[in-house]
Write the structure tokens for this entry.
Amino acid sequence: MERTTRQKTAIQAAIETAQRPLSAQEILEQASLQVAQLGIATVYRNLKSLVSEEKVHVVTLPGENPRYESNTVANHHHHHFQCTVCQRVFDVHDCPGDLKRMAPQGFVVERHELTLYGRCPECIGAAPAAAHGCGSGHDHN
């Protein structure tokens, strides 16, 4: 039982200290620094337990594997930013606010989710900006 407790504690600590949503693989990499020979199946088993205990929240982005963040972060309204180069996800604490005006007439907005896409500071510094143009012809503000 102690081994499972150490594993679960390491997994939760990885999520708590990350300050951004992590994929299961990122959690495995971080938690493995505390508990050697941690496997991905153990990570998923403990994530399921942490989610059911409401200590961890699942972050789902369209077309992506789930990521996990601390419920202390998840309980505050926020949005996400995904780097299109490294695929990492970061929290965005600003919000466009009341989106009622965007809904079709007669509709009622009950909630919203917003994901911004672009490059994180590390990826901006790693490659010239001209090499990463959108190419879609759309202006995404």
About this structure: Confidence is low (pLDDT under 50) at residues 129-141.
